[in-house]
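Example for tutorial group B:
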C-alpha cells in the first residue's frame, strides 16, 4: 500500500506526545491509532451514559430496600473496559468503511489505513480481537442485558454509512453512543423502565449536540466530497440548535431522575452541567476548528459531573 501522509508514525488529529508513543513500541502505534487509544474522549463519551444509568438504577434499587453497591462497582468496571474495547472496534470498523473518504480529508489522511501503515486485512483481524473483549464483558451481565448489547450491533454497523444518506448522521451516532443508558439500568434490574428510556433519549440529544460541534472542524472538506452532517445542516444557526438540543437533553435527564427518585445531589450535578452547556453555546465559534475540538472534549467533564451527582446521591441514600 502507498504511504500517503503519516507524520513519523503519528496522526495529524491527535496529540503527538500521547502516552501511546511513550509506552508502546512503534509497531503497535497504528493499531492504537485505529482504536483511538491516543484519543480517550471517544470511549469516555461512550462510557458516561452507562455510568449514569447504572448509578441511577442502583439509587432506585437502594430506595426500594435493595443494596447493590458491590454489583454497581463490578458493573462500572466492566462498562469501562467495554467502552474502551467497543469504541476501539467501532472506530476501526468506521475507518474501514471510510477508507477512501479519509484519504480526501486533511485531518484524517494520516490515519493508519489511508496512510498505508495498516492493511484492510490487518484492520479486520484487529476488529475481531477487540470484539472478543467486548463479548467477554457483555457475558458478565444478565441475559436481558446481553440481548440488548447484541441488538446495538445493528446501529453500530449502520452508523458509518449515515453520512452518505442523511443530514443527521449525528442522530445515528447518538443511537449507538447512548445505548449504555439502557444497558446500565438493565444490568441492575434485568429489565428496562421508562426512566431508562427517557435517559437514553436525553443522551441521544446530548450526543447530537456535542458531535455537531465536532463536525464543524471538517465542514469544508465534507462539502467538497459530499459528506453530510448536522454541522453543514445547521450552519450559522448551530447556536440556536444547540440551545434546543442541550436544553431538551437536560429536561429529559431531569424527568428521568425524577421518575427514578434520584436524590438532590443528582439535580445539583445537572445544574452544573447546564452551566457548562451554556458556556459552550455562548463562546462557540463554528469557524475555529481548534475551539470546536476543545468544546467537544469538554463534554467529558459534563459527563463526569452528572455521574458525580448521581453517585453522591446514591451514597446519601445508603442506609447508615
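The residue assignment follows.
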Amino acid at each position: 500500500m502507498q504511504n500517503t501522509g503519516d507524520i513519523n508514525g503519528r496522526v495529524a488529529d491527535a496529540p503527538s506526545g500521547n502516552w501511546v508513543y511513550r509506552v508502546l513500541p512503534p509497531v503497535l502505534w497504528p493499531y492504537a491509532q485505529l482504536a483511538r487509544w491516543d484519543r480517550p474522549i471517544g470511549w469516555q463519551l461512550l462510557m458516561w451514559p452507562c455510568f449514569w444509568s447504572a448509578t441511577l438504577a442502583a439509587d432506585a434499587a437502594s430506595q426500594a430496600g435493595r443494596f447493590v453497591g458491590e454489583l454497581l462497582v463490578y458493573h462500572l468496571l466492566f462498562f469501562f473496559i467495554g467502552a474502551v474495547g467497543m469504541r476501539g472496534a467501532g472506530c476501526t470498523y468506521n475507518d474501514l468503511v471510510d477508507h477512501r473518504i479519509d484519504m480526501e480529508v486533511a485531518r484524517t489522511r494520516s490515519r493508519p489505513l489511508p496512510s498505508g501503515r495498516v492493511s484492510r486485512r490487518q484492520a479486520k483481524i484487529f476488529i475481531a480481537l477487540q470484539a472478543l473483549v467486548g463479548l467477554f464483558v457483555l457475558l458478565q451481565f444478565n441475559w436481558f442485558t446481553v440481548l440488548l448489547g447484541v441488538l446495538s450491533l445493528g446501529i453500530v454497523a449502520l452508523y458509518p454509512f449515515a453520512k452518505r444518506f442523511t443530514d443527521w448522521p449525528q442522530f445515528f451516532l447518538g443511537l449507538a453512543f447512548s445505548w449504555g443508558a439502557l444497558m446500565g439500568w438493565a444490568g441492575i434490574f434485568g429489565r428496562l423502565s421508562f426512566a431508562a428510556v427517557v435517559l437514553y433519549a436525553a443522551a441521544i440529544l446530548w450526543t447530537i449536540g456535542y458531535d455537531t460541534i465536532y463536525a464543524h472542524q471538517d465542514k469544508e472538506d465534507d462539502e467538497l466530497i459530499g459528506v453530510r452532517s448536522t454541522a453543514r445542516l445547521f450552519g450559522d444557526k448551530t447556536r440556536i440548535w444547540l440551545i434546543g438540543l442541550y436544553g431538551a437533553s437536560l429536561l429529559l435527564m431531569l424527568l428521568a431522575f425524577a421518575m427514578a427518585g434520584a436524590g438532590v445531589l443528582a439535580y445539583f450535578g445537572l445544574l452544573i452541567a447546564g452551566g457548562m452547556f451554556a458556556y459552550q453555546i455562548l463562546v462557540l465559534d463554528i469557524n475555529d476548528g481548534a475551539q470546536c475540538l476543545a468544546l467537544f472534549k469538554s463534554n467529558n467533564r459534563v459527563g463526569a459531573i452528572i455521574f458525580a451527582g448521581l453517585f453522591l446521591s446514591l451514597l446519601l441514600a445508603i442506609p447508615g
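Confidence is low (pLDDT under 50) at residues 1-6. Compare this with the pattern of hydrophobic and polar residues in the output above.
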